[in-house]
Write a structure and sequence with these properties.
One of its GO terms (biological process) is amyloid-beta metabolic process. With 510 residues, the chain is α+β, with helices and mostly antiparallel strands. Helix content is 19%, strand content 31%. The structure holds 2-acetamido-2-deoxy-beta-D-glucopyranose (NAG) (4 copies).
């Protein structure tokens, strides 16, 4: 009975704490060279890869051009950073403006800045020095896949030097405590959550940044992201790569070829529908629900391509076969070890392309985004002068497929909120040494995958909360009963008679 009661308590505790994860997951690119290297020498035989250069050609061009008053060219190159530590935007916060670098995260919905000193950041937003800061007197807390912070809600005015003109009033979470959120080597002091209100904390009444911006400046309800760190070393702090966050539309000079759109299934994360994965020419052939279990999202705040465990295992298996590289220690695939080659040797030609098929806006069609090994076999420098070391840019995930920065660096990605769709086109900066590292093509028939690849698995937060509250209600009821029972038998035992026939009581006094 005690066990039973303990498990009831545990259940109560668990449900009241069931947040769902905000997927921010950042890698610092710091490896301990004495333990993390996989120096097993690799025999570089003939590549078994036959790369099929089928081309898009007749893809639908659905790019929309800038409509009005915003000058997108002024926003080009307004980001700095890399996939490893995230891409950040310079913003002026408060009156007079305090300059802070803010991480661009399409996988969460709070705008939050450091409001107290922390060993890993150089400066923070000093609320006392802003004449326009207003505290809302409400606590707020966000937990990410990695890291968390706590703070206080307020509002203030912000402007973006390389953004739409004007000053807007937005909700700010002032970060007072954090753990594993600011990391060594990051050069940002806050986070800009660009997803939908449903993910905002403490609740969706806290209007997210981009909603406020669209409402107050009148720019179109769309933004687009180009991140240019492809093929650059993930630990090169001196010279961060660039990128662009175009607020209000699409800048045509940032992509090549056709823009392909996939519907946003639900407006919380940028949730999309993945129909198929290919490694090289090989279709993984999993049930398409595996790819979307429990969701598939596009998230600039996650470094790697994260795959549901079954999918991850199938991908590693397929890469191992295709690449003829079998003597890797498993540490490479799990991310705890680097693989190194002597300088001058390049391992990239031994790895296959990886293609993700997404549902097109015409539901009976799909298109595929393809990343070359240059994007997912990522160089890490400064380990040892004679070696080139790489890490695996794909990791297993327990909470869904995440198209993270590793993949996004190949594409110009359009978050077309107005039309509820995410667009992909090959990015103009997705090349290393003049060779493109990403491809996109379509249309492919998706009539064979007309059945929903999503559903059954997905648990939305409101539902989760309803379940949580319902369970808490049940818990409370059970507790009351248990308390009552705690007293009843004691009294009755003195009387020497047991009248209650319920099994609960019989068990309790056995
Ligand atoms: C690297 O790992 C070794 C062995 O565990 C340890 O002795 C050393 O202090 C580590 N170095 C760093 C920089 O963490
Ligand atoms: C590869 O290319 C050949 C001809 O170029 C084509 O017939 C074949 O269907 C392609 N295979 C794939 C998987 O794209
Ligand atoms: C902001 O306004 C200035 C002056 O009117 C203009 O030159 C500039 O292009 C505008 N910037 C943006 C991003 O629209
Ligand atoms: C959607 O795709 C199917 C199959 O390719 C095609 O027959 C149909 O005409 C398309 N519908 C629209 C509205 O383009």
């Amino acid at each position: 009975m005690l066990l039973c009661r303990v498990s009831v308590f545990f259940l109560c505790f668990w449900t009241s704490n069931s947040h769902y994860n905000i997927p921010l997951k950042i890698f610092t690119g710091k490896f301990n060279s004495s333990v993390d290297l996989d120096l097993s020498s690799l025999k570089l035989g003939e590549s078994s890869l036959k790369q099929n250069e089928t081309d898009s050609g007749n893809g639908l061009s659905l790019a929309s051009d800038p409509s009005g008053t915003v000058n997108f060219l002024d926003m080009v190159n307004n980001l700095k950073g890399d996939a490893g530590r995230g891409y950040y935007l310079e913003m002026m916060i408060g009156t007079p403006g305090q300059t802070l670098n803010i991480l661009v995260d399409t996988g969460s919905s709070n705008f939050a800045v450091a409001a107290a000193a922390h060993p890993y950041i150089t400066h923070y937003f000093n609320r006392a020095l802003s004449s326009t800061y207003r505290s809302a007197g409400r606590a707020v807390e966000v937990k990410y896949t990695q890291g968390s912070w706590e703070g206080e809600l307020g509002t203030d005015l912000i402007s973006i030097p390389k953004g739409p003109n004007g000053t807007i009033s937005i909700n700010i979470a002032a970060i007072l405590f954090s753990s594993d959120f600011f990391l060594p080597g990051v050069n940002w002091q806050g986070i800009l959550g660009l997803a939908y209100p449903l993910l905002a904390r403490p609740d969706s009444s806290v209007e997210p940044f981009f909603n406020s911006m669209v409402r107050q400046t009148g720019i179109p309800n769309i933004f687009s992201l180009q991140m240019c760190g492809a093929g650059l070393s993930a630990s090169n702090t001196a010279d961060p790569a660039g990128g662009s966050l175009i607020m209000g539309g699409i800048e045509p000079t940032l992509y090549r070829g056709s823009m392909w759109y996939t519907p946003i299934l639900e407006e919380w994360y940028y949730q999309v529908e993945v129909l198929k994965l290919e490694v090289g020419d090989q279709n993984l052939n999993l049930d398409c629900r595996e790819y979307n279990s429990d969701k598939a999202i596009v998230d600039s705040g996650t470094t790697l391509l994260r795959l549901p465990v079954n999918v991850f295992n199938a991908v590693v298996e397929a890469i191992t076969q295709t690449s003829l590289i079998q003597d890797f220690s498993s540490g490479f695939w799990t991310g705890s070890k680097l693989a190194c080659w002597l300088k001058g040797e390049t391992p990239l030609k031994f790895f296959p392309k990886i293609s993700i098929y997404l549902r097109a806006t015409n539901a009976s069609q799909s298109f595929r985004i393809t990343i070359l090994p240059q994007l997912y076999i990522q160089p890490i420098t400064d380990i040892d002068g004679t070696l080139n070391c790489y890490r695996f840019g794909i990791s297993p995930s327990a909470n869904g497929l995440v198209i993270g920065a590793t993949v996004m660096e190949g594409f110009y990605v359009v978050f077309d909120r107005a039309q509820k769709r995410v667009g992909f086109a090959v990015s103009t900066c997705a090349e290393t040494g003049g060779v493109p590292v990403a491809e996109i093509s379509g249309p492919f028939s998706a009539v064979d995958v007309t059945s929903e690849c999503v559903g059954g698995f997905a648990i939305r937060e409101p539902l989760l909360w309803i379940i949580a509250y319902a369970l808490m209600g049940v818990c409370a009821l059970v507790l009351v009963i248990l308390l009552v029972l705690l007293f009843l038998p004691c009294r009755r035992r003195r009387d020497g008679e047991i009248t209650d026939q319920s099994s609960l009581v019989r068990h309790r006094i056995k």
